[in-house]
Amino acid sequence: MSAVVDFPVKPEARPYLDAFRGTAGEPEWLAQFRQRGLTRFSELGFPGRRSENWRYLDLQPLQQHPMLPAVIGEPMGIPAGLRLDRAVLRLVLIDGRFAPELSAIELPGGIWFGSTTAAITERADLLRDVETGADHPFAALNAAFFADGFVLDVAAGVALDRPIEIIHLASGAGDASLHTRSLVNLGAGSRATIIETFAGEGKYWRNDFVAWRVGDGASLTRVALVEEGAQAVHFGEVMAMLGGGAKLDAFALLLGGGTVRHEANVTIAGDNAHCRIDGAFLVAGREEANIVTTIDHQAVGGKTSELIKGVAAGRAHGAFQGKIIVREGAQQTDARQTSRNLILGRRAVIDTKPELEILADDVKCAHGASVGDLDEAALFYLRARGIPTEEARRLLVEGFLREPIEGIADPAIREHLLRRLGDRLGRLESE
Fold this sequence. Notes:
Blueprint: H1 14-19, H2 28-44, H3 60-64, E1 89-94, E2 97-98, E3 111-115, H4 116-122, H5 124-127, H6 137-145, E4 150-154, E5 164-170, E6 177-186, E7 191-200, E8 205-214, E9 219-227, E10 233-242, E11 247-256, E12 259-268, E13 274-283, E14 288-297, E15 303-313, E16 317-326, E17 333-344, E18 349-358, E19 363-372, H7 376-384, H8 389-406, H9 411-428
Parallel strand pairs: 1-5, 4-6, 5-7, 6-8, 7-9, 8-10, 9-11, 10-12, 11-13, 12-14, 13-15, 14-16, 15-17, 16-18, 17-19
Antiparallel strand pairs: 1-2, 3-4
């Protein structure tokens, strides 16, 4: 029997509303938080192509065949080559739930690091005021259904000299949705580097949400590597707030998944904050990948740099939508946005839509986009030197995608991503 509610419910949201049971023993503030998220998702439902931010993805299959949350948690190990070689703090989630047997958490002084479920009990002060993402339907759904995630809290002035690794695995044990919700909170003048990896097998829908709070003068580097299963749907959403003089370096590499969407929303709230949001995607077969960014400059002297590169082969579809907003009081903003793309074959498609909204007059802002084929002259040059055609194409594609990866400061993470990219390119011609 359908639940009786006193708020409007979109038809496609009804299965999720009916599946909601809450979690026994949770504190009242969390129960209310979940209910607010569920109510908002029920009102919003699934966005359609008429929604500007979702115009390049077809959500009909997911809408018509609901993938409801389920407790799965099948035992599994970390796939070979997926783990970062350099010794790190590591937290592993399997089917959206903390796996302590695969994790390595040895806490240095000045930080709190652990699963979201542990933080609900031990660090509720951090989580109480994290917004549901009320205007974002799947962030709201995530607020209702999240099972776990991770929380990192770094005290003021503490600098972590080793990267922290978060590995999200899907066991493929059932057709279900996996909702994870996380928080990174950096105190003033602190520094941290995080690499998050998303991988799995089988058919599933991963809906991940993370909030970043970067305090005054703090520095956060975050790298996301997406290598989901061929039938998987992956939605990853970030909401970030930067304080005065804060620095954010973020990079996303999308290499696998049937439908993948990476969204970053950054608010530059403090003066003289710097934000670098780079990304790259490689899609083949019938895969689709979207990178969506919104950078909102609300303070003086902010700086943003964006470089997004995409490659599509077969009948794949890639897209980039980027918006930089400069508010009226955000004078002396310097913002640059670039989208460059390669299409391999006649049936692949890439859409790109960089956008600037400038309400201040003392600014330096620019954007540009290009979509083209491989450079035939470069291909001829390599073939003339005895390199087979397919290898020459692979070398050119790899060289094209290396540029944003080379911007990652940590050498261990940079080399790890280049190896994963090389493995993916090695499989490209067979798809």
